[in-house]
Amino acid sequence: MTTTPLHFQRADLAALVLRAALGIVLIAHGMLKLFVFTLPGTAGFFESVGFPGWAAYGVAPLEVITGVLLVVGYQAAWAALLSLPVLLGALFVHVGNGWLFTNAKGGWEFPAVLVLLAVGVALLGDGAYSLRKQLLQARQT
Q1: How far is CA 51 from each of CA 2, 43, 82, 132, 140, rounded to the nearest angstrom?
Q2: Single pTM value for the model
Q3: How far apart are CA 20 and CA 67, in angstroms?
Q4: pLDDT tens series, the chain, 141 aa
Q5: Cα–Cα distance for residue pair 121/137, rounded to 1 Å
Q6: How far, in Å, CA of 65 to CA of 73, rounded?
């Protein structure tokens, strides 16, 4: 039996926490666009802030799909990288509203944190506590 050094265990736990946090937020925002605002409503909002309305039809499913991949830990680095343009777009929308998200129209601190979470997950990858790791281990046995 081999033991994993504590710093590797902590990095794997960090990967899990970061993946789950970002994934849950992405799923929530994607579902919000799909079921509360609806895609036509989201398209209208996108147009009102200078983005093409048709982008809503890709962004909402992308948020849900990448969110699920992040939560379960399957190709998390790629999922985080795929989410970055969406997160940078959200940051762009809020950057002129001041720092705090409680400002009128929301500030940029929350989108900035999401961008940093995505970068962190892209650097860490799936980690040991992930579906991908479990699938790789099952293939080896």
Answers
A1: 52, 9, 18, 35, 46
A2: 0.91
A3: 8
A4: 556 666 668 899 999 999 999 999 999 999 999 999 999 999 999 999 999 999 999 999 999 999 999 999 999 999 999 999 999 999 999 999 989 878 888 889 999 999 999 999 999 999 999 999 999 888 987
A5: 21
A6: 12
